[in-house]
Each structure stands twice: as structure tokens, then as C-alpha cells.
Amino acid sequence: MKRLATVALTALAPISWGSTYAVATELLPPDRPLFTGVMRALPAGLMLIAVARILPKGAWWWKSAVLGALNIGAFFPLLFLAAYRLPGGVAAVLGSLGPLVVIGLAGLLLGEKAGTKSLLAAIAGAFGVSMVVLKAGAALDLVGVLAGIGSAASMAAGTVMTKRWGRPEGVGPLALTGWQLTAGGLLLLPVAALVEGAPPALDGKAFLGYGYMMLINTGIAYWLWFRGIGRLTATSVTLLGPLSPLTAAVIGWAALGQALSPVQVAGMAIAFAATLVGQLPSRRTRTRTPLQPFMISEQNDRNISMDLVNGQVRR
Questions:
Q1: Which of 44, 98, 109, 296: CA 20 to 30 A from 263?
Q2: Which residues contact 279 (CB under 8 A, 6 or more apart)?
Q3: Backbone φ, ψ for residue 30 (5° rounding)
Q4: d(C-alpha 60, C-alpha 44), whole Å
Q5: How far apart are alpha carbons 251 and 244 in whole angstroms?
Q6: How many whole angstroms separate alpha carbon 153 and alpha carbon 105?
Q7: pLDDT tens, per residue, the chain with 315 residues
Q8: Torsion of CA 165, 169, 173, 176, to 10 degrees
Q9: Whole-angstrom Cα distance, residue 89 to residue 107?
Q10: Of 284, 292, 313, which Cα lies nearest the Cα of 222?
Q11: How many other CB atoms are there within 10 angstroms of residue 305's CB atom?
């Protein structure tokens, strides 16, 4: 039951990320993806650090920078570049291949030996997503394809390395999330300034959209994601990824008036079923004895004082 609750809370992260397209197109200034990335990550990271009141120490300065680059600083611009260069949902399909990358890296770096069930769930999830977002005659652009693959690989590596390094003693997922978001936002800031220039003028809708992006879509969502990584296997967490494009499709149908074809509905059913199957315990999944960071991470998950902060965020 405890695992089920953890899975459900972790699933809220990709569900939240599925709202990004609708919020960006309806509320935010157009053609400013890097500025949007900065506004998502940096304020949220600073806010979480202020709440947790813990800064990195020793090696965790560079570890936070690496994780922030993989999960935020490199992932965001590569994802946006792929979305601009690849029409017809090709970027979403490439992103849905991320679970397969995680399964491979988790086997190499974490000793998580994924069984046939997990592999089939990852393949079925990617296939279902392709049925939902891929359109006939979608053109392929080499730069866009490379960016899409890079974004999936970056997020996958960030997920696995977050699991591998765990958390330092006495540090909860709230602080770890704040460190990564701040590092990723600082990495994005000069890139956004060079590529997009000065920040755009913001109206009331933009402030509302950026507020949602910062607090819900990034701050709370990434906290739930990294919290889940600390308590579940990397494979189990990444197999929740298809919920993001599925949520985007549902929002597009319900709120933006976008029609769903029978093929898309079938694809949604396949991807959702694959996500559920990916969360079923498997006797064939074997994990080596965890390294010290994992043991520290599990101790921190049971630290009641850190959960007091989490309880405030869950309201």
C-alpha cells in the first residue's frame, strides 16, 4: 500500500508536465522557450532552497550542478529545439524512448536487471504514444532528431544518476530538488539571454502562467519526481513517463477543442496499460546491494523531520 501511494504521488509529476503545452500556448509569450525554462527552474529552485534551508556541501556542489544540467539545463533547451524542428509529435515519440535508455543505464550503473515485463512495457508505452501524437507524413530533421534523442538521454541519465548518488545525510528530497533546479536555471540563464535577448513584457496572463509553471509544474512536480526516484527503482519511475503526452492529449481534447481519432484513443489505452503494467512488482527484477548513497537516501526517506516539510507542500 505504501508503494502504491508513492507511485501515485510520483505519477503526478509527468501528469503535471503534460499541461505544459496548453499553459505555454494559452498564457505565455510566444517563441520564448528558453526564457520560460529559466522562469520555471530558477525561481522554483531558490524557493525550495529557502524552504529547506540547506545548501550543498563538499562534492554535492558539483554533483548538484551535474544533475541540474542533465535534468534541467540540457534537457529543457534540447527538448524545445526538438519540438521546434520536428513536426507531428516526432519529438514526443523520441522522448518516449527515454524509459528504454533508463533501463539500459540502470542495468549498467545501478544493477537493476529489468525483466521482460519492464522491457515490453517500455516498448508498448512508446508505441502507444506514437499512435497518439504521430501524424502521417511527418518530416524528419537531423538536428531535431539529434536534439530529441539528446533530450531523452539527458533526462534518462539524470534520473539514473539521481538514484545512484542518492542524497547526503540529513538532506531530504526538497533540498535536493532545489539544488538541481537552481543549478539548471543558472545554466539556462546566459543561454536564454544570448539566444532570445531581453525578457519579454509580461501581462496578467503571463504572470499567472509562469506562477503555475514555477510552483506546480516545476517546484512540486520535480520534488515528487526526485522523491519517487529515492523510493522506487529508476525503471519503475521512468515507466510513468508516458503519462505526460497522454495528459497533454486529454487536455488538448477537453480544454482546447482538439479532436481525438479512434487510433489516438487506442494509442492512449495502450500507453496507459503499459504504464500500469510497468508498476507491477516483478520477481525477475534483481538489484545488487545498494551503494552507501542509497542507504543514506532510504534513511532520509524515513526522517520524520524532513516529512514535515513535505506535508506542507502536499496540501
A1: 98
A2: 7, 236, 239, 240
A3: -75, 155
A4: 19
A5: 11
A6: 10
A7: 789 999 999 999 999 998 988 898 899 998 888 999 999 999 999 999 999 999 999 999 999 999 999 999 999 888 888 877 776 567 788 888 899 999 999 999 999 887 889 999 999 999 999 999 877 666 677 888 898 899 999 999 999 999 999 999 999 999 999 999 999 999 999 999 999 999 999 999 999 999 999 999 999 999 999 999 999 999 999 999 999 999 988 998 888 888 889 999 999 999 999 999 999 876 544 444 444 444 444 444 444 333 333 444 333
A8: -60
A9: 29
A10: 313
A11: 9
- Cα-based torsion angle of the residue sequence 301, 304, 305, 306 in order, rounded to the nearest 10 degrees: 30
DSSP 8-state symbol, 201: P
208-311-219 Cα angle (round to 5)? 35
Q: Cell for 13? A: 509529476
Instruction: With beta carbons less than 8 A apart as the criterion, state whether 166 and 297 touch.
Output: yes
